[in-house]
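Summary of Year 1 activities. Much of the first year was spent building the evaluation harness for sequence design. The harness presents a backbone, in tokenized form, and records the residue chosen at every position. We chose the following record to illustrate the format because it has been used consistently in internal testing since the harness was completed.
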């Protein structure tokens, strides 16, 4: 046992109030004796004091103490920004030097806390891990904290309370660092399909000179899209357009500047979800029939559809005595619909339409041009499609994939999926298979047509085409060669998936990505990259994946027989993964697309200053001064200053904490000897008074 502490303790034989009363009476008598100049009064006062001491029972307490070593906490930042060229070596050398200097100090325990290894999405967290480490360190033993970092920290400074030793921050860089970085100041999360959006960017470049400019390249879903010139250190609005529903990835990239710490922050990724405002549908019914209400109910039940529906009840050639003002509430706005406002619609449906002169040839030509420019057309054919008044004999005819033969079959049949229909996303997963013990209900009329092109998804009587999908220019066309789909809606013979089938056909016509025949989609779930490939032909080959670090991997796919092939593989590195299969590509992200850690890698003291002020300590720029001298200082002395081998020094407190291992108690006024010692001055005083 080394070290110790000595004190006096009292264990009175009588209550303290008796001792105080005794002391008061004795003090009064002594004062009276001094006033009267009584002989021997000093000896009597000494006797009273000794007697009071006997009653107070003092003892000498000697503590046996074992000193405890102080604790120094070294925090080393190993985040990605610390792995830059030059900074990695400086970080390692500073850690080795600090640990060696601390190892040479006696009575000091060193604990190391490493941060940044988990690559957290919200950046480098220093003060949270430091607080958890300090929770195990008694504050009386904390000599101080030495943090080796670049200052790019992203948690609240000063969360580790100010109690305990000082905080010294060694910054692994210089004050004059410069780096070019691309910043996305604002970007919408959602946007309307086909409508322009604005993304605001800024190119920060401290090394730029007046008149400098840089070229920013934008790729949309992995394909080059735009490039333009920007001036550094100024906000620039960029107009973008979403061309398909769902998630779209915009990758913005700028070339290197004069001074660069890393090129990783020269690239930003913006993700925007495109939504369709509303689907505007024009439904033209040639004549009333039982299926007309089914069409209307299906379209009106969708809250995303604006429906304009007209039924032509009376052809112009019909003449009778009915007054004109009783024919209709409003006149049929043919010119307004088919010329002035045609481009405001997304989909036009002709249901059992026949030529009657209401829609003139020039308007039908407008519809054909509308489809070729990117519009959508669906024709649900009735018996008139096989006759001379058929739409096939108009400007729309060349767009229709099924050319009528003139035959109309009026006997029962069941619609069945063709080989293409079993793989096409419109019909592949329709409820029920259309075969087996519970087939779809029968229809009783089919218009015969020769399929000249397109994909035949459903076959009818004798395998003849029943549902055909095709492309025309930039637009799409669907053809249903029967007017009795409504029997499914009524549940005849068990019915069938009429509403779902027509909904999918409408969405395919509107180019919904999920219903494309050739489609590639990727997503990450539970740290696995899952790839789904849709095709009308079996796919049993791997797809190539470009990882965030630039490397390439493969994901094998296995065809499932329903028009899809799937595969997956584990992934760990955060970032954007690009899946490529020929002309198709898809993207999936894990973690943050724009890591906060790499947004700005310049060394800074801004984030650590509040904590250093709260705890006391210092900030040292290693790139300019090197590792400072480390000293042990007393608790009331300053913890940093000038001098030392590097021009500065930092101090760790010497707390002198200990643990008591034993106590030795020695009575001072106990036993017969103490009583004799008290009686001796009393006898001397009595003798002096008797002389």
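For this record, the design step produced the sequence shown next.
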């Amino acid at each position: 046992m080394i070290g110790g502490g000595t004190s006096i303790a009292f264990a009175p034989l009588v209550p303290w109030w008796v001792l105080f009363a005794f002391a008061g009476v004795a003090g009064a008598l002594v004062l009276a004796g001094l006033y009267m100049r009584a002989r021997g009064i000093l000896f009597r006062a000494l006797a009273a004091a000794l007697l009071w001491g006997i009653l107070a029972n003092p003892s000498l307490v000697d503590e046996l103490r074992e000193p405890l070593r102080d604790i120094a906490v070294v925090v080393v930042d190993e985040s990605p920004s610390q792995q830059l060229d030059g900074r990695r070596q400086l970080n390692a050398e500073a850690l080795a030097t600090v640990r060696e200097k601390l190892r040479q100090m006696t009575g000091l325990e060193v604990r190391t806390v490493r941060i940044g290894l988990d690559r957290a999405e919200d950046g480098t967290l220093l003060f949270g891990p430091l607080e958890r480490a300090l929770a195990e360190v008694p504050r009386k033993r904390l000599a101080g904290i030495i943090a080796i970092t670049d200052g790019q920290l992203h948690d609240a400074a000063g969360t580790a309370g100010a109690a305990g030793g000082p905080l010294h921050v060694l910054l692994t860089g210089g004050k004059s660092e410069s780096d070019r970085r691309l910043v996305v100041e604002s970007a919408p999360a959602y946007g309307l399909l086909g409508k322009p959006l604005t993304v605001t960017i800024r190119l920060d470049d401290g090394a730029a000179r007046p008149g400098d400019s840089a070229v920013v390249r934008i790729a949309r879903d992995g394909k080059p899209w735009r490039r333009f010139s920007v001036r550094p250190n100024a906000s620039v609005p960029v107009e973008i357009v979403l061309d398909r529903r769902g998630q779209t990835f915009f990758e913005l990239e700028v070339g290197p500047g004069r001074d660069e710490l890393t090129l990783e922050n020269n690239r930003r990724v913006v993700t925007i979800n495109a939504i369709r405002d509303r689907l505007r549908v024009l439904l033209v019914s040639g004549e009333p029939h039982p299926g007309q209400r089914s069409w209307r109910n299906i379209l009106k039940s969708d809250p995303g559809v604006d429906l304009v529906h007209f039924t032509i009840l009376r052809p112009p050639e019909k003449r009778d005595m009915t007054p004109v003002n009783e024919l209709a509430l409003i006149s049929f706005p043919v010119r307004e619909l088919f010329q002035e406002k045609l481009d405001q619609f997304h989909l036009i449906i002709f249901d059992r339409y026949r030529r009657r002169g209401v829609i003139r040839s020039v308007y039908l030509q407008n519809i054909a041009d509308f489809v070729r420019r990117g519009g959508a057309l669906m024709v649900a054919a009735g018996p008139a499609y096989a006759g001379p008044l058929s739409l096939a004999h108009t400007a729309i005819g060349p767009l229709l994939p099924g050319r009528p033969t003139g035959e109309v079959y009026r006997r029962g049949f069941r619609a069945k999926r063709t080989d293409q229909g079993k793989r096409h996303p419109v019909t592949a997963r329709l409820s029920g298979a259309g075969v087996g013990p519970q087939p779809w209900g029968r229809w009783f009329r089919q218009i015969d047509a020769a399929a000249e092109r397109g994909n035949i998804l459903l076959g009818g009587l004798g395998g003849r085409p029943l549902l055909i999908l095709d492309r025309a220019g930039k637009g799409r066309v669907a053809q249903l060669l029967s007017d009795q789909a409504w029997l499914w809606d009524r549940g005849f013979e068990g019915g069938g998936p009429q509403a779902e089938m027509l909904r999918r056909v409408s969405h395919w016509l509107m180019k919904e990505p999920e219903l494309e025949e050739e489609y590639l989609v990727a997503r990450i779930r539970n740290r696995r990259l899952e790839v789904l490939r849709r095709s009308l032909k079996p796919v049993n080959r791997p797809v190539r994946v470009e990882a965030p670090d630039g490397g390439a991997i493969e994901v094998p796919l296995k065809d499932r027989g329903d028009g899809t092939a799937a595969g997956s593989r584990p992934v760990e590195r955060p970032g954007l993964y690009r899946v490529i299969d020929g002309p198709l590509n898809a993207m999936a992200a894990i973690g943050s697309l724009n890591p906060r850690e790499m947004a700005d890698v310049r060394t800074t003291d801004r984030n650590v200053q509040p904590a250093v002020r709260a705890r006391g300590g210092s900030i040292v720029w290693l790139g300019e001064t090197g590792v400072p001298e480390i000293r042990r200082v007393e608790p009331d002395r300053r913890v940093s200053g000038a001098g030392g081998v590097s021009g500065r020094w930092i101090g760790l407190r010497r707390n002198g904490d200990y643990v008591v291992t034993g106590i030795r108690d020695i009575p001072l006024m106990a036993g017969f000897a103490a009583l004799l010692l008290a009686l001796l001055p009393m006898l001397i005083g009595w003798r002096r008074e008797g002389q």
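The chain has a mean pLDDT of 83. Quantitative recovery figures across the full test set are reported in Table 2.
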